[in-house]
Here is the input.
Amino acid sequence: MFEVIQNLGLGFSVALSPAVLFYAFVGCVIGTLVGVLPGVGPLAGISLLLPATFGMDATRAVVMLAGIYYGAMYGGSTTSILMRIPGEAASVMTCIDGYAMARKGRAGAALAIAGVGSYVAGTASVVGLMVMAPPLAAIALRFGPPEQLALLLLGLLVLAYMSSGSMLKALAMAALGLLLGTIGIDQMTGYMRFAYGVVELGDGLGVVPVAVGLFGVAEILATAGAPTPPAVVKPRLRELLPSRREWRDSAWPIARGSVLGFLIGILPGSAHIIASFVSYAVEKRLSRRPQEFGHGAVAGVAGPESANNAATSGAFVPMLALGVPSGPIPVVMLAALMVHGVAPGPLLIQNQPALFWGFIASMYVGNVMLLILNLPLVGVFVNILRVPYPYLYPAILVFSILGVYAVNSSVVDVWIMLIMGVLGYVLRKLDFETAPIVLGVVLAPLIELSLRQSLAMSDGRYSIFLEHKIAALLLAVGLVLVLLNMYTFARRGLDWRARIALAEKGEGS
Amino acid sequence: MMHRLACLALALLAAAVVTPVAAQDAYPNRPITMIVPFPPGGVADLTARPIATAMEKVLKSPVGVVNKQGAAGAVGMQSVAVAKPDGYTLLLALSSISIIPEADRLFNRPPAFTVDQFAPIALISADPTVLVVPADKPWKTAKEFIEDAKKRPGQISYSSSGIYGTLHMAMELLSQAADIKLRHVPHSGGGPALTAVLGGHVDALASGPSVVLPHIKGGKLRALAGWGDKRIAALPDVPTFKELGYPDAEFYIWAGLFAPKGTPEPVLAKLRATVREAVNDPEFKSAMDKLETPVTFKQGEEFQRFFDADAKRLAEGVRRVGRVEAK
Here is the structure.
């Protein structure tokens, strides 16, 4: 323990030096911006700014890039809550209840909760990273393809809890998402699937254009198509702060989201996105008032927003402790280290204590900066709602197109976004929820690859899933969950979801 | 009125006649774009940026790096293949430039591009891959590894950056040279492939030396042999497959600069001279040293020969792998 404090002292001496402090601040500001702008997410932001870090020293470079990553998680909630447009893919779940809260005049409260939740999760997960990085990284390494598949299948079960209406419709959307996720080069054989000669489709549908299209563009179309424009919500100052009850309702979701996000973050894949989905489902499952989800439940904002933030720290665990990436963002950050001659590997913490502990300390500092930066901004951002829709929405559409194009300089991505926008509009008119599609698109390539890698490892024997103990355990948990649900389903007949669906049907006709 | 129009027409005509000559004399008279067909942070990107900076100094004219990623590099390579051959659009490509068209051919797809659509300018680096295994695996030498693989065909597994990817082809060339059969588990990039071998989920990996060096030094991985024609400077005790009697197991992850075919010869000559000077720039050298990637400069005929031989080896490799059919 003494050693940790001593090391942390070293870390803070690095992190609080004016230059490092400055770059942490720059990173946090840029992160907030790429989070707020629809389309441009942390991966694009970090990739675009990587070359700018080549002239700095290694510590400043990683401190700034990390600031962009977790800063984006703070900013991402803003447009989700105010306009139902995900600022980046990990804020898709926030769109649902955050926007519902905004429509009720609780936009300020939702933004404040998201900010505080992000802060708590960010700080708590840095503690986790600091104290447990090496042992956790060792566990993460044991997650090979079979374990990953088992975990991802568990993640799919989560889908069942995501809908607030008909289960059948939610599953249909998830299936559509999984199908869309099969577009692109088959990673195991090299076949092009459903690309129709478009080389750009080789990488499949990006989650960014899909999410921005299904939520943002669809929302704009729906508003434009409404007979009367939605009333402009004029926020009043005293409504900016969350009420006592909202604080109480978010305390546990923030705590659970922090732990969940951190643990999921360690594992490979686009962890911050998956973590937010899982957290939403868990909160809904544990809530005493699940029927509120989808209609402005504060837990549906607090949980996912905390989880995506904690996942960013989790993603640094294998990167710093072992020098291996857990997803596309750590890959870019590892490159930033290599450019400066810092070899990422198992000896990094030992050989570069100033860098490692400076990095850790800068994350504590960065989270405080983001909180100070974001809470006052709540008052500014909610005023966006005062802008009349005829001006606001075209501007957002322009930003979305620019953002999506900027990520890969690809017009194909813009088309994907627009097509998804139309699809999302049609689905909304038919009362389908689109969040499961996004989850499907994220999970499908991961599930497929891990299944086929597992089978390649075992020469085609499915018994590999039972031989690997962690995988077998996870699959057993999934099986129990399914059985439990079938039991309740058989006993109660209709659960609350079906009742709501029926009630809505009654209203509609 | 007529007079003015005539003047304008004359002026335009004069401009049309004069400009190309002037442009050729003064190449480059506007910024050059260097396309990197991979995302920022990859080998290609990390080579392109310092060489572009060094070329800027020599040419005294801006050289901008643009990442145009997608479909394992095919998107960016295709864009350069069809770009105007005026010397203002260049491509920094890796070995995969020779693999992609061959894989397209394998699947009877219209190829996104072919290698003869490019005019090679210069080779900048050529890093031989190295065979690594987890430190707790029994094989201490490449000989033991190959003998074991002969005893248990298809039982020893390896990860790669993706099917027909560079790391896959390296292993495939070894398999052919040593007449062994290994089990391929493709991953989605070099990072995940490294994680797989570190976690012991596969038995081996062919990798560029720089990314595995820290893990070899940290005692997690053991290097058995290299694919180069010389030993790797940072691993002087690790033999090459050539020394071990497998001369066909030769493979490099190389980075080279290309222009679209049809670029005028004076422009190509100027570019070659520029790169020759740029690779000796001390800042460029120190950037490559930090990446632990030695500079291997070849140009003109020499690069063309290297490129052709490499492309032939890889094309044969791809054909030997063939299509992966469902079992």
Notes: The two ends of chain A are 65 Å apart (CA to CA). The mean pLDDT of chain A is 86. The longest strand of chain A covers residues 184-185.
